[in-house]
Inverse folding.
């Protein structure tokens, strides 16, 4: 059952979460991009204009609006405009292949798609497969060809929509790779999204709550977790969000130096590159007070190297799409615990459960599960995800026994530090991007020359993991370079580039157990 307890401190929904910042800091810089800057009053007016523009396109409460574009203020304006209308946001990641984008548009039933030029070119030929999609609006960053910016300008001066927002209604769909090879959309409410900001500004997550903090946005805002952390959190607190249109190490260093950025979150691979590029001097990052790394376990060695080179701490954390975003993390105020990724935030309780959903004692290994805290000021405030869009059986499985089941294996110590040990769902994390083997295996086994396929992660010092494919060929089929290229081309046509296997092994027979199932731990040993 969805919790109905209000959030302490007056926070209610995403639609109104900027009001305090607008009232107290109307002329302060709110958001920065390559082509535009907005003070708080200007941003608030642009969001209302964006909501009017979407309403003119027929968007109302419950309608789905999808977006696929880079990190620029335009996409942030669109997100908040959707929330003020009571509509549902669907972020679609830019690296996805055309069939992957089309699936998410079709599955969510998106009525409007705000797309940059590349995404528009991918989806336009597939419009026949998308009967619910009424309109594609160009959201190409910059002053030329940006139809979304033009629509916002046409509705300048519009009042805030007269819409009664239900903070517990569906407000966003965040797609996560599915174990069956097809993504599923985790549905979140405005309550759940703004709760992350509320706990931040109550001082429960280190020094994130400082109103003048300038946060660099390097990770894609099309990922809902990042829209929450990098837009809702700083803007609701009166800080500044600097949308970086370059996520490479040199580009990040340039942005940090030019905009005096004080914190950013990057994948471990990004931090690795910052450490290993001789062109980047410590003084280039002098304005940083700290950095954070998400998307994969942050190696202790990486934290130590970052501290030694730049003289600043590197924080880590643990989260998931279904939470949404982070559920545990380190902070500037908590002691460093080797191998741990932090402690539960105070609005949450983390427990380790066994296969019968019984809570295990400290030090025992089991599945990491999450629910609302049951003690303290924030007890009972957290509301779990509303489920997977259109997938009641998978929803029931993920939320059984009153817990959000993460599918990750871990250990809690007596002090509450969480240690990740394994992933029940076999997920691969490449440079902070999640990949489910079933996605890739589905493409490989579609080739009649392939009898079976298995995909595992291979450790990589920079990216954390890369994708390794094992292919068992049909009888009479010979392994050669032409076949490998054909399979790689099939992956390239249907999957995002980061999901394409980088290591290929052809086998006459897979290692199998007595139930004839592939023994993936054996394959991991081989790579």
């Amino acid at each position: 059952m969805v919790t109905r307890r209000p959030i302490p401190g007056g926070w209610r929904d995403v639609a109104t979460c900027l009001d305090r910042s607008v009232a107290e800091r109307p002329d302060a810089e709110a958001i920065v991009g390559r082509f535009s800057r907005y003070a708080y009053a200007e941003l608030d007016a642009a969001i209302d204009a964006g909501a009017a523009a979407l309403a003119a396109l027929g968007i109302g409460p419950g309608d789905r609006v999808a977006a696929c574009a880079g990190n620029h203020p335009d996409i942030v304006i669109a997100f908040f405009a959707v929330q003020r209308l009571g509509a549902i946001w669907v972020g679609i990641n830019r690296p996805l292949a055309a069939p992957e984008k089309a699936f998410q548009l079709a599955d969510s039933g998106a009525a409007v798609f705000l797309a940059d030029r590349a995404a528009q070119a991918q989806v336009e030929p597939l419009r026949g497969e998308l009967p619910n999609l009424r309109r594609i609006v160009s959201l190409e960053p910059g002053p030329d060809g940006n139809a979304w910016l033009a629509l916002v300008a046409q509705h300048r001066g519009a009042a805030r929509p007269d819409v009664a927002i239900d903070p517990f209604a569906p407000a966003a769909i965040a797609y996560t790779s599915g174990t069956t090879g097809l993504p599923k959309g985790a549905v979140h409410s405005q309550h759940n999204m703004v709760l992350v900001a509320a706990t931040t500004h109550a001082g429960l997550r280190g020094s994130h709550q400082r109103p003048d903090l300038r946060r660099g946005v390097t990770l894609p805002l099309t990922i809902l977790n990042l829209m929450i952390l990098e837009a809702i959190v700083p803007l609701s607190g009166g800080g500044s969000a600097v949308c970086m249109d370059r996520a490479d190490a040199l580009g990040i260093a340039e942005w940090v130096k030019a905009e005096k950025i004080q914190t950013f979150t990057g994948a471990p691979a990004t931090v690795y590159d910052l450490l290993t590029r001789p062109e980047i001097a410590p003084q280039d990052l002098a304005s940083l007070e700290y950095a954070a790394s998400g998307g994969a376990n942050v190696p202790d060695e990486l934290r130590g190297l970052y501290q030694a080179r730049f003289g600043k701490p590197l924080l880590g954390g643990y989260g998931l799409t279904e939470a949404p975003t982070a559920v545990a993390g380190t902070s500037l105020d908590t002691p460093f615990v080797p191998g741990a990724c932090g402690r539960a935030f105070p609005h949450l309780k983390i427990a380790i459960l066994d296969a019968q959903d019984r809570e295990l004692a400290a030090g025992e290994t089991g599945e990491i599960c999450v629910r609302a805290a049951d003690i303290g000021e924030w007890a009972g405030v957290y509301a779990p995800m509303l489920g997977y869009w259109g997938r009641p059986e998978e929803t029931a499985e993920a939320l059984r026994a009153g817990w959000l089941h993460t599918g990750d294996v871990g250990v809690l110590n007596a002090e509450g530090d969480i240690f990740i040990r394994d992933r029940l769902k076999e997920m691969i994390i490449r440079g902070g991007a999640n990949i489910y083997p079933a996605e890739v295996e589905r493409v490989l086994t579609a080739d009649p020359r392939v009898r079976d396929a298995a995909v595992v992660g291979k450790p990589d010092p920079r990216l954390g993991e890369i994708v390794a494919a094992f292919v068992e060929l049909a009888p009479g089929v010979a392994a050669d370079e032409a076949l490998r290229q054909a399979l790689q081309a099939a992956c390239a046509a249907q999957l995002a580039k980061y999901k394409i296997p980088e290591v290929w092994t052809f086998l006459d027979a897979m290692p199998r157990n007595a139930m004839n199932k592939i023994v993936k731990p054996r394959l991991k040993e081989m790579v």
